[in-house]
Design a protein that fits this description.
It contains nine helices and no strands. The chain has 234 residues and is an all-alpha fold. The longest helix is centred in the middle third of the chain and has 29 residues. The N terminus is likely disordered.
Length: 234
């Protein structure tokens, strides 16, 4: 569990996006959307388990379901405690459908495979948990830093975010790479590849357009010294 309940009041969040139309600029008014998202995650996990049972080797099934549980818990920690903003309609609909398509591909691919060997287990666990750590720990580092009054209005460029401006997104790609490996099906490589392309060509430019305007004095140096997505590469 997270030992600190993170808070950011509406006035501070409005200062982050005074025009009301910037990237992720709607401050949270209630937990309604977060509760809806939690219910969606429970339903998705239930369906995921239903199709894993009876169609997948037990060892592989248990590992794949463990990955699903951890991922959904992380998503809800993000939605309920780490984000000061309201969840968007896109996150309640398109993102959920996207996750369902990934899990469906994993189930279909896994049904064609036998038991996991030890090499698959070790590699998939390394990718999955390193990716999860990159995503969650980077978000926590930034949240703790932003919570300090002297850092208000400044761009966070430390910790894991000193390796990549979007190290949290890179972590998601790595963990889904591990998830795909655990499925034992080679064509599930489409999952991390598609996710990386969506982050690099769509989500990152969208987010960084806002950040460039928000942190006009600090952003140019950050861009010059830190890669956008994959540490030390691009």
């Amino acid at each position: 569990s997270i030992p600190i309940q993170f808070k950011m009041d509406a006035s501070e969040y409005e200062e982050m996006a005074p025009d009301g139309g910037a990237f992720r600029s709607v401050a949270r008014q209630s937990m309604l959307r977060a509760n809806i998202f939690a219910l969606e995650c429970v339903l998705v996990l239930g369906v995921y388990w239903h199709f894993l049972v009876g169609h997948v080797n037990q060892r592989r099934r248990d590992i794949l379901f463990l990955f699903g549980i951890i991922y959904m818990v992380r998503l809800n920690i993000m939605a309920r405690w780490l984000l000061p903003r309201e969840l968007s309609t896109e996150e309640l609909t398109v993102v959920v459908v996207w996750i369902c398509s990934i899990l469906a591909s994993i189930v279909v691919g896994t049904a064609l495979q036998g038991a996991m060997n030890n090499v698959e287990v070790v590699i998939s666990f390394i990718f999955y948990f390193v990716g999860s750590w990159l995503n969650s720990w980077s978000e926590l580092q930034r949240k703790w830093w932003k919570a300090r009054p002297e850092n208000k209005g400044h761009c966070y460029m430390l910790g894991l975010f000193s390796l990549s401006r979007n190290i949290n997104y890179f972590g998601d790609v790595v963990l889904f790479g591990g998830w795909a490996i655990a499925s034992g099906c080679w064509w599930n490589v489409w999952i991390p590849v598609t996710m990386a392309a969506m982050f690099y060509f769509y989500h990152i430019p969208d987010k960084e357009k806002y950040l460039r305007d928000r942190y006009k004095s600090e952003w140019p140096n950050y861009v010059a010294t830190t890669k956008s997505f994959i540490p030390f590469l691009c």
